[in-house]
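User:
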Amino acid sequence: QSQLVESGGGLVQPGGSLRLSCAASGFSLRHYAIGWFRQAPGKEREEVSCISSVGRGINWLHSVEGRFSLSRSNDNNIVYLQMNNLKPEDTATYYCAARGQPYLPICTSAAPEGIYNYWGQGTQVTVSS
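Assistant: Predicted structure:
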């Protein structure tokens, strides 16, 4: 069974850090771009960041520039989202999603969610004092 599993969420104080993980089982992430999405209560899901299959990361949201960074280990079949200087407005459920064939494993702005082959179940991030 092919699936993505996120982990690393939790409760953190403003200014703190978390590292989210997105691990794949049943398939190799090597040929997939990975998008990170988040959904806050009462809001639509939005794409936060993306890392291509060759490791080029990009933050789509200006609000996370300079605070969020991405990395991946294809050998370990895992992708990370490092989140620093967290703010209350970062509170949300965070999802990772894998994009591969028949689409290119690249990051493109405003890509429709339907092109992602796999989705994780989400991990909750709460930033509060």
